[in-house]
# Entry
Amino acid sequence: MRQRSIFALVDCNNFFVSCERVFRPDLLARPVAVLSNNDGCVVARSNEVKALGVPMGAPYFKHKSVFERHGVKTFSANFRLYGDMSQRVAQTLGQFSPQTEMYSIDESFLDLSDLEIEDLQAWSNGVAKVVKRHTGIPVSVGVGASKTLAKAATELVKQERKDSGGGLSLVSLQNEYPASGKLKNLPVGDVWGIGRRFEAKMLGYGIRTAYDLAALNDRWVRQQLGVVGLRAVKELRGESCFGIHQGSSLDGQKSISATRSFGKGVGSLHQLESAVASFVARVAVKLRSKDQLAWQMGVFIQTNRHRPPYQTFTGQACLTGPSSNTTELTRQALTVLRRMYDSDFSYKRAGVFVNSLVSADSQQLPLVGDASNMLDRLNSQDRLMAAVDSLNSRYRGAIGLAVRGVDSRADWQSRRRNVSPAYTTSWNELPRVGAKGF
DNA sequence: TCTGGGGTCCTAGGACCC
DNA sequence: TCTGGGGTCCTAGGACCC
# Structure
């Protein structure tokens, strides 16, 4: 008989900010924020910035004066750096359980069900210490009988806002559900699976905490919050509904996209073509890096969301066969774009997506035509694309189709005024010893 | 002037079929 | 007084996650 489930969630504290601080220890006790593309939104906040009352995802311009008044150091998002740091954390976690799932760039679940750990509370604190020592990233470690409870535990740890990180186990041998007496301290909106809408609905009924939520009647929950909400509630009671997906949550993903808001409004078809072509290139690289091919692709262009009339144009193309070939995908994308382009509008955002993905090695050859010819052609395309990918990873963005354009100051390019160096992935960007903070 | 980007799953309703 | 009914597929929209 399988024993009960036990999960841990390791959640990196203020992850993007913590990454920047690893290489800028001078910023450790100072307020720091990381901004999204175009320096538009606040996507990571140090505890000092949280204390200023700046919410997650807030438009930067609305808080700019507060930032200046308090000397908040801001960075433009540097995803190459964060991705690399994320890998380091994941690697460290591998030593604590053979069953790990990288859930997002800053969170991993560990399955502890089959491990013999006597003191889960001490264990969780230990994990936090080791990760901090190995990577410099402070983490919150939560342990529970379900993923949702593990998640709840990390939320409770984070309430303490300790810069060094720490752990909490909600699993005790004596009692399970009432052990969640601690859940009285967790606001209902902080429960995994309860977003803004569901939170408002629950508050309307006087349900304020995770504890209140767990005590509700199943049928009523099903009615109000659907099967998703019901699962969340069951998980809160320690009834595990979700297992571990070994590897990454994104393994076997169903779609891939590349979308961006533009630095300025873009009206000309020529510029949109250049933007879309560069998005296709990104998507195709992602496809190839995952050994995937797509049967379907789509393009969308949008006007400014905050300035009515807001318009979105979307078009889809069915490919003649599954592909990850940049040239072919670009041709299709541009056809779609030209078909739906309307010169009366100025566009602020565009994107390219692919779906109906299949694994490249399970690719079916066409039923008609000379299969060996087809194979040759596919192989030569594969080799070309592999060569392009390898050159581009070494000399970032060196090679591309001409339509993509080469003007890095084009209107559609994002503004990123304060990017930190690629400390961990580019020798050229390593600071000299003795420079500020080293 | 200035508001991110990448995903998933569920549900309701319409089309279509027998 | 009556205008079937059930299954399946697709799509759009809404909710959620980080």
